[in-house]
Amino acid sequence: MSRSTAVRAVVQTPFEATAARVRRSLPLGDLDIAPENLRAGEPPDDDIPQLADTLFAAGQLQPITVRPGRRKERAWLALDGRRRLMALRLLVEQGRIDDGFEVDAFVETDPARQAAAVVLTNTATPVHIADVIAAIGRMLKCRLAVPVIARALGHAELDIKRLAALSALPEAALDA
Q1: What is the value of pTM for the model shown?
Q2: Which candidate, 10, 135, 145, 170, has a CA 20 to 30 Å from the CA of 60?
Q3: Quick count: other Cβ atoms within 10 Å of Cβ 130?
Q4: How does strand 64-68 pair with strand 22-27?
């Protein structure tokens, strides 16, 4: 068969993958914040009550991005959308909605796209380098490979390996 008659393989572009991703409504009670989220351990910021009021008044304008939960995790974990999830939880505490409230979400199952979704958190509010180091450590614990993390974060693999080595330091050292 000549080259001119060979069948070309169809490879999905990232743009096409985005267009084909799954969008679902998920019960709020089935959601939690993914440990690899850059701000997973941070307390709610002062603007969460205002965000809760906005969500209650206008509804959810942007879907959160989730991945399926693993063994001891909740069913769905938010990779991007931590503040919105916290605001919705505040609405539950206030009795304005309940745990069955349906949350609009994009479900990401591809590890590279999951890592990229975590990076979106960095575009809204500056993140301290210690938080990036800790997040890389959590990504590695979730079995994401260094090349996948490097591509998603737009860094060289060597840089990710260096930051990964720092992620083994005690938390107190990273806070210093």
Answers
A1: 0.62
A2: 135
A3: 16
A4: unpaired
Query: Cα separations (Å) of 31 from 35, 46, 78, 128?
Result: 12, 22, 7, 26
Q: d(Cα 119, Cα 149) in Å, to the nearest integer?
A: 10
Domain limits at 100?
A: 13-175
Question: Does residue 151 lie in a domain region?
Answer: yes
Q: For 58-100, what is each residue's pLDDT tens digit?
A: 889 899 999 999 889 899 999 989 999 999 999 999 999 999 9
In a 3-state reduction of DSSP, which class is residue 103? strand
In whole angstroms, give the CA distance from residue 27 to residue 25: 7
In a domain, 1, yes or no: no
The per-residue DSSP string of 120-141 comes to HHHHHS---HHHHHHHHHHHHH
Residue 3 lies in a domain: no
Start-to-end CA distance of the chain, whole Å, equals 64
In a domain, 95, yes or no: yes
**Which tens digit of pLDDT belongs to each residue from 92-134?**
999 999 999 999 999 998 888 888 777 766 565 666 788 888 8
